[in-house]
Amino acid sequence: MQAAIHAGRYGWKTLVIDRSKGRTFYTPRYMNMLGYPEGVSGMDLLKKGKKQAEQYGVEFLMKVATDVSKNEDGLFTITAQRRKELKEGTKDQIDIVRAKKLVISTGIMDRHPEVPNVYHWAGYGIYYCADCDGYEVLNQRVVVVGKGNAAPSKALMLLNWTKHITVVNVDPTATISDELMQQLAKYEIPVYHSPLKEFVGEDRERVEQVILQDGTIIESDKVFSALGMYSVHSELAKKLGVETLDNGHITVDPRTKQTSVPGVWAVGDIVAHTQQAMIAIGEGAQAGVWINKILRQEGHMPKRWVNWSASKEPVLL
């Protein structure tokens, strides 16, 4: 969204293909965002961002980008379909878009604890990012769930805010290193080895009990998931030959946010960096600035205030 706002303000013909309901959409509130001392929901942030982008002529295509290729003429061809059509396996409403420059911001999705009704607490009584939400558990009882070393590592991060921490290794076959076990013992953090059974609590803001399959009941206030990412959406980037890490995250030039493939930028949580909304916004701004520089260096001039259609060629996706 931020890359599109910058591109629109420069006057470039800009199109956003948005599959909707990404990670930000499901975030009930950001409490560490500059300018929002009372917090702001991800949904509200996206709604305001879309309205702001449209002020500068940015167009939106609410579909899923399913394929992308770079042509011999240097332009990119992007295929997009609606979610419903993808589910039904039909190809009646395919959109084909051609673009001079491409920004990939397809993001990631978190892996949730395997308990009934997990979405009741997700983002409220269950947190996922210690850097984002550690402050929200100040002096509270926290249960950190994960596999192997992941849970102890996140538990030790949370010591900035609370000492009332319990670790649950939900996969008893996954080992925890001796070094981490020693650090947990140093701070008197108990460790349990059992899959989860359920969470108990009337208020979605508070998980009152974490119940394990072995019958253990842990009194709590909040849960932190250290289960990692469910998916890293870098499939489109890989189709273009963009360089990625083993975990799927995209590597970019730290100054420009351009990937290893000329003409392709990547921003947000799909990039190998600290996963913070404000970092994603900053990267989008950087990408927008450098896309403008390179388009001008290539001799292109902005096409202002021309409505996008299938017959036109947007210069940024």
Provide an overview of this structure.
The protein has 317 residues and is an alpha/beta fold. The protein folds into two domains: 2-109 and 229-297, FAD/NAD(P)-binding domain (3-Layer(bba) Sandwich); 112-226, FAD/NAD(P)-binding domain, CATH 3.50.50. It contains eight helices and 17 strands. The chain has helices spanning 2-10, 42-54, 83-88, 130-133, 150-157, 178-186, 235-239, 277-297, and strands spanning 15-17, 59-61, 64-70, 76-81, 95-99, 102-104, 108-110, 126-127, 142-146, 165-169, 191-193, 196-200, 209-212, 217-219, 222-226, 229-232, 264-266. A five-stranded parallel sheet has the order 8-15-9-10-11. Strands 3-4-5 form a three-stranded antiparallel sheet. α6 links the parallel β10 and β11. α5 (150-157) runs parallel beside α6 (178-186). The chain starts with a helix and ends in a 20-residue tail after the last helix. The model is unreliable at 305-311 (pLDDT under 50).
